[in-house]
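During the reporting period the student researcher (J.K.) took over the structure-prediction task from the postdoctoral fellow and processed the backlog of single-chain submissions. One of the processed entries is reproduced below for the supervisory committee.
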Amino acid sequence: MRRLRRTPALRRMVRETKLAADDLILPLFVCPGEGVAKAVSSMPGVFQLSVDKTVETCREAVGDGIGSVILFGLPEAKDAEGSAAWSADGIVQRAVRALKAALPDLVVVVDVCFCEYTSHGHCGVLKGHEVDNDATLVKLAKQSVSLAEAGADVIAPSDMMDGRIGAVREALDEAGFGETPILSYAAKFASGFYGPFREAAESTPAFGDRRSYQMDPANGREAVREAALDVDEGADMLMVKPALPYLDVISALRYEFDLPLGAYHVSGEYAMLKAAAERGWIDYDRVMMESLLSIRRAGADLILTYCAREAARLLAKGWTE
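J.K. obtained the following structure tokens:
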């Protein structure tokens, strides 16, 4: 077996899994104001960005080789229903219009959910202390149409309500956006790896948790059933979130479905790499690239990752080891 491992050239020749900048999607957090780039303390190198700074950052990312971003919004005001999420003048809607004007070839994916927009921090409309599934579907459809009208290239529902893909697909079709694809967070687990994201998106629940709608981390077979329902309802792409703790789920979905498959290398995964690197415990570049390669090897076609620009720069320099 060592014969083909003997030199870098031989290893490159027989390498089974390859990583490219086109595989990477950069998550960004858009906030109100102008000239704002507020550091997220738990995620070194990640910022809350005003619309002008979002455009500037995306222009730099394109220069690094990144062709896709996903946007999360921090609204000026929150309410119980998250109504800022479907406002024509909402923070993400403004960012989408600015990005499509400045960088028309950039693929702009938009997260569809309410945790950043609601005063209570949950992903939908409440009925008492529970999220009302069907009432939330109506609002998700409104948000999706509003974002499509702003020019979003891909709609990505992350709320984990039952029936959401069908509701969003029907709303987009009726509004004349039949060609707008849906990237479904098909298997989004109730994970402890989301902590830094909740700081960045200011979306920590005011009470309780999200375990009644996000998936139990113990359930792999259920993830396949979730994905199958989303495919039947019209999803164009599927996603698993988080990535590294759920490589088996990525592999299972890759085996079962032919649709493009994404994986979200989430905030906690990123923060752990940064923290260990700051302490000198790991070689950050090597471990980061190994992590992304493992996600690709498991079967993901696309990786949403805060490391996207760092990885793209390394790839541009010819990173192979």
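The committee noted the following: The mean pLDDT is 94.
J.K. will present the remaining backlog at the next meeting.
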